[in-house]
Inverse folding.
């Protein structure tokens, strides 16, 4: 249902569901989506936190910003503030404590996690997705250094493809989801 651009990455549906689950969002939560891309996580979170909640979408690519904006409008989400910029510096525009963060990109990962730590409430959650094992290991290392007791899961999703002889399951790239809670 999302407006797409093949050049702009989108977090797949199954990964969004798990990531939002690990973020432990609730009605009224304050949430940050770093690297919003198409805005798929932003939209899902906006629906989840409801009218009393707030979602900040951070994205550096002007085309992705526009795509995030279009998807937020398409789904009639009114609790989103889009911030054009690169993390971690763009995080400085957020002036309130937040409940959870999703990091969808690996650029400036160490510095972004450290800046997120400044914003997160006690017991706030950070969730990251990664394609590369090295990114997951880096996230675990930084979260461990901050005493977040990081956890990791690997998600492998296969989608059915109808062939002339029946359905074949076609696997997508495995995704690591790393998450932790601020002490």
């Amino acid at each position: 249902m999302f407006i797409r651009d093949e050049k702009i990455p989108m977090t797949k549906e199954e990964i969004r569901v798990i990531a939002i689950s690990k973020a432990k969002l609730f009605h009224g939560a304050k949430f940050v989506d770093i690297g919003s891309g198409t805005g798929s996580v932003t939209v899902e979170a906006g629906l989840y936190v409801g009218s009393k909640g707030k979602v900040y979408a951070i994205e550096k690519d002007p085309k992705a910003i526009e795509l995030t904006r279009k998807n937020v409008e398409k789904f009639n989400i009114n609790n989103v503030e889009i911030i054009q910029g690169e993390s971690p510096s763009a995080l400085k525009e957020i002036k309130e404590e937040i409940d959870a963060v999703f990091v969808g990109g690996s650029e400036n990962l160490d510095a972004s996690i450290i800046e997120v730590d400044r914003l997160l409430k006690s017991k706030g959650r950070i969730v990251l997705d990664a394609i590369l094992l090295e990114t997951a290991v880096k996230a675990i290392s930084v979260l461990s250094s901050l005493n977040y007791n990081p956890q990791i899961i690997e998600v492998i999703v296969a989608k059915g493809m109808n062939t002339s002889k029946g359905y074949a399951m076609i696997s997508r790239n495995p995704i690591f989801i790393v998450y932790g809670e601020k002490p």
